[in-house]
Amino acid sequence: MRYSTRCRLLLLGVCAFVTLFYLRRYTNRTVDVGEKMLGNILYRINGYSSQNPYSLTGNPVNHIAFLKVRKAASTTVENIFLRYGDEKNLIFALPRHSGGGTELTSSHFYPPPKNKTYDITCAHVNYDTNSFRRVLHADTKYIGIVREPFSHFRSYIRFTHPKSVVGIPGDNPVLEYLSREEQNRNKTGHMASVCNRMAVYYGFSRDLFSKRDRRQTLKYILKLDKEMDLVLVLEFLDESIVLMRRILNWDLRHVLYGKLRVNKREDSRLKFGEIAQKLHRNCAYLDYQLYEFFVQKLKEKIKDQPPDFYDELAYFRKTRMKYEDFCLSSISNDDNNASITFEGSAWNQPFVITWEHCKKLYVHDVTYLGMLIKKQYSAEYL
């Protein structure tokens, strides 16, 4: 019996799925590669690709709360929202002081222009359900971000140089700090906020820092899960961004990003070895619970996506690299006449990127926020 090309491809896909299913038992894959392979094969059998006509329907989401977590690629993601809101003339919650504030209140943020409501908040601020909902639109989409806790701790210490750590004398202050914290925790049960910086941003209550209460910790994380529309994961940033684009119903060009704030500062006294990592896991109990929950949640969301998710992911990566290469080249050559045209796809309309776009891609976030303050509180907004 002869099989059509479609049947043969389908059979091949099923065989690949079965083979990869068993291989996956012996590997530490972060995405279900069997489902990925089968999904891509079936998707292409049905004739879909990035060359299909632009298919986005419905209105884009313009009301967004992004929980910016320091040293978790949050400045890179914040820049996405700054550029989008700037282009669309949306109203931002703009901090009175560089970097943001601890609460989304008038003491830390400028009030919105008269008779208007914040459309986007994306500066540093600790999450609090009531204060956020009091000043934001009812249909606001809530987006967070997390990072593997030890790498987050390492980056945070290297970037901020907290006195509680770097002020310790000796040639290994990190290990000494974590050892002291373990001794203190054994006596008091209190978990250090320096170890649990993500938990601070996500608004964990003080009692959760003072006791290792697994039930109450999980209860709060489940509350966050209900309130957050998506929590991005740094280790799967591109997958997270593609999911975010779908939730926000944006044209793909709006979520292209350039890497910002890469920490290059080194301090020979700051060492992060295996012993420190083991001690940190106990010290950062809240951060590990938070991270592991939302990594699993992200994987579940990916599995629930239609097969074209992986086509979009590949297309996004290719387009982003082309975008970033152009911008780095035009900026380094100071070519303010440079431009590049991108073709349309199922996820974006054709668009042109110029030197002006590139400047905003890499502008310092504090500088950009300052520009937006001048724009938002100019005569046309008041």
From TrEMBL:
Name of a matching Pfam family: Gal-3-0_sulfotr
Keyword field contains Transferase: yes
GO molecular function, one term: galactosylceramide sulfotransferase activity
Keyword Membrane: yes
SUPFAM superfamilies (UniProt xref): P-loop containing nucleoside triphosphate hydrolases
GO CC annotations on file: Golgi membrane
Family assignment from sequence similarity: Belongs to the galactose-3-O-sulfotransferase family.
Protein's name according to its UniProt entry: Galactose-3-O-sulfotransferase 3
